[in-house]
Amino acid sequence: xxxxxxxxxxxxxxxxxxxxxxxxxxxxxxxxxxxxxxxxxxxxxxxxxxxxxxxxxxxxxxxxxxxxxxxxxxxxxxxxxxxxxxxxxxxxxxxxxxxxxxxxxxxxxxxxxxxxxxxxxxxxxxxxxxxxxxxxxxxxx
Length: 141
Description:
Layout: H1 6-35, H2 42-68, E1 71-78, E2 82-89, E3 92-99, H3 100-136
Antiparallel strand pairs: 1-2, 2-3
Helix pairs in contact: 1-2, 1-3, 2-3
């Protein structure tokens, strides 16, 4: 039986999956910095650090909303196939079991979103810089 409202559940699950995505991003940054033999690491590090910053910012906002609405998410148990979480909203509690491959897919979706947002922000920044360079340079004769 569902005890949480849809918006409460959506908020809590976004927080949960975003937290998992941040863990993955941190591991990727560590891998790039310390364990890979990439010749040029800086573009990858820049992308992942931008993703991390966006994720931290969103999670901070979610944490504030959750605090205001008295929503909590707590891990319960984990085995090879499933992971259980307890969602608490005020006096109401709801236990949810997630199939581990489903969790992985949700985290992949969030990583893709963050990557696209970071890429678009970077592209917009480059476009603005290009426009500034074009407008400040004199025309070639």
